[in-house]
Design a protein that fits this description.
This protein is an all-alpha fold and about 230 residues long. The chain is built from 11 helices and no strands. It has helices at about 5-40, 40-50, 60-75, 75-90, 95-110, 115-130, 135-150, 160-165, 170-185, 190-200, 210-220. Helix 10 (about 190-200) runs antiparallel to helix 11 (about 210-220). The longest helix has about 35 residues, at about 5-40. The radius of gyration is 21 Å and the shape is globular.
């Protein structure tokens, strides 16, 4: 009987250790997200990610994705592209690859890198082509929409978005109104764009777009870049 005690104790120890690590990862992730998204302290966030102890909690790919999140908010283009290059050189899980390509698509669309944006969209299409998950199908449609608005500047999307926004609330409504304003701007109708932005501002959804909306109301040319 005693010969079974040590394997049992070892299994119990490993199980306990894994449980502690999961809790630490969850707590650390929540703290990092609060610093980045609530306190908006990008500098502190990036500095904390350099702590070598995090290497015991997260995979290298996870830490690079965290770093990319911070850089996309407050980093320079050189650091963003360098981090993307590092991620492209790693073997990622399908979920990680999908997340990275989504972030790359948003960045390339915002910076008007049409070729790179299309490459990321194509990769996302391939990753999600056979998915039957409603959440993933929604994600695919979102990616197609972002590309159509930011790169193709497809103003034929306006009627559909204006119909959609009638039934939306909260941050989703704010985002759709902002997209409508962009397309109105691309249609050389800044008067309507500003009116739409004011609707988005009055929506009070505490959206990440709030500061950009304020800038665009004062200067609609912001809609060309953001």
């Amino acid at each position: 009987m005693i010969k079974y005690i040590y394997p049992i104790l070892l299994l119990a120890f490993v199980w306990g250790l894994l449980r502690v690590l999961r809790q630490l990862r969850r707590q650390t992730s929540n703290q990092l997200e609060e610093i980045l998204y609530i306190q908006n302290d990008v500098e502190l966030y990036l500095k904390l990610l350099m702590n070598p102890r995090l290497g015991f909690l997260y995979r290298k790919s996870t830490l690079l994705i965290f770093r990319l999140n911070g850089l996309l908010i407050g980093g320079n283009h050189h650091d963003i592209l360098s981090t993307i290059q590092q991620l492209d050189g790693l073997v990622l899980t399908q979920g990680e690859r999908l997340e990275v390509e989504g972030k790359k698509l948003s960045y390339y669309c915002e910076t008007q890198r049409a070729k790179e944006a299309k490459e990321s969209l194509d990769k996302i299409e391939t990753l999600l082509a056979k998915s039957k998950s409603s959440r993933r199908r929604f994600l695919l449609e979102e990616c197609r929409l972002i590309y159509a608005i930011y790169i193709r500047r497809d103003t034929t999307l306006l009627p559909g978005l204006q119909k959609e926004v009638e039934t939306q609330v909260g941050a989703r409504r704010t985002l759709t109104l902002y997209r409508i304003a962009k397309l109105q701007h691309f249609s050389d109708d800044d008067k309507s764009a500003i009116e739409t932005l004011l609707k988005a501002k009055s929506n009070r959804s505490t959206s990440v777009w709030d500061s950009i909306i304020d800038l665009a109301i004062q200067d609609p040319s912001i809609l060309d870049r953001k």
